[in-house]
Amino acid sequence: MSSDETLFAIAWRYEKDLEKLARANGLSPPYTIYRGQRLMLDTNRLPPIVRAAPPVKKQPKKATVSASAEKKGSPSPVKVTKPAPKLPESLPSVWRWQWPTQGRVIRYFNSTELFKGVDIESHSGQAVVAAAPGVVVYSGSGLRGYGELIIVKHSEEFLSAYAHSRQIFVKEGQMVKGGEKIAEVGGDPANSKRLYFEIRQKGKPVNPLNFLPRK
């Protein structure tokens, strides 16, 4: 597990809305979490009492936290190094989805599978673009099964993810325009021609083909 995992990454792994997860745990922006704190994954329950680490007199080290065992298979201890990026006020409120890369869909959305998105067959080195304007809230390889991954937040409701990139060109907190190049296809050793693409609405995976324009 990556040493730079954040509350956002935990929310993504368990298909939780970040704001609801933070609210259920009594957290407010920038969603700082501390050593010894346990996270409630049931976002429908009342906020629990937060148990924080005792004050540290010396130079503080990177905090270590663990997700609560409210759900089986909770992640092992992780380190949090930065808060979740916020949506800038300049982000357009009206936008349209566009295809993240050129190619044909070779694997379709299935809500019963572990990875709930689509595979787009393209070419190694083909540009991957932001499917809509937004802010990069994750950029790295810390989420198992996704390879080099970018997650873009478009609004308080929508996120999009671009997995198995060969090269990433954006950083967390960076604002991107719709159609702007953010990565390149080719990071999956088993299939260097595919891009895995996912859209989430209020934390839950949805069928990208219901939002992307028809070819």
Q: How would you explain this protein's 3D organization?
A:
Helix content is 7%, strand content 28%. It contains 2 helices and 14 strands, in the order H-H-E-E-E-E-E-E-E-E-E-E-E-E-E-E. Strand 13 (194-201) and strand 14 form a beta hairpin. Mean pLDDT is 81; it is low at 48-81.
- Write the H/E string, N to C: HHEEEEEEEEEEEEEE
- Name the poorly predicted regions: 48-81
How helical, in percent, are the residues? under 10%
Q: What is the assembly state of the chains in this entry?
A: single chain
**Rg (C-alpha, Å):** 18 Å
Tally of DSSP helical segments: 2
Give the distance, in angstroms, between the N- and C-terminal Cα atoms: 38 Å
> Which structural class best describes the helix and strand composition?
mainly beta
Mean pLDDT across residues: 81
| Main sheet overview | 8 strands, antiparallel
Write down the overall geometry: globular
- Please indicate the percent range of residues in DSSP E strands (runs of 2 or more): 25-35%
Number of strands: 14
List the helices and strands and how they pair.
Layout: H1 7-13, H2 18-24, E1 38-39, E2 63-67, E3 78-80, E4 104-107, E5 118-121, E6 127-129, E7 134-140, E8 149-153, E9 158-163, E10 165-168, E11 175-176, E12 181-185, E13 194-201, E14 204-206
Parallel strand pairs: 1-2
Antiparallel strand pairs: 2-3, 4-5, 5-13, 6-12, 7-8, 7-11, 8-9, 9-13, 10-12, 13-14
Sum up the structure in keywords.
2 helices, 215 residues, mainly beta
Provide a quick synopsis of the model.
This protein is mainly beta.
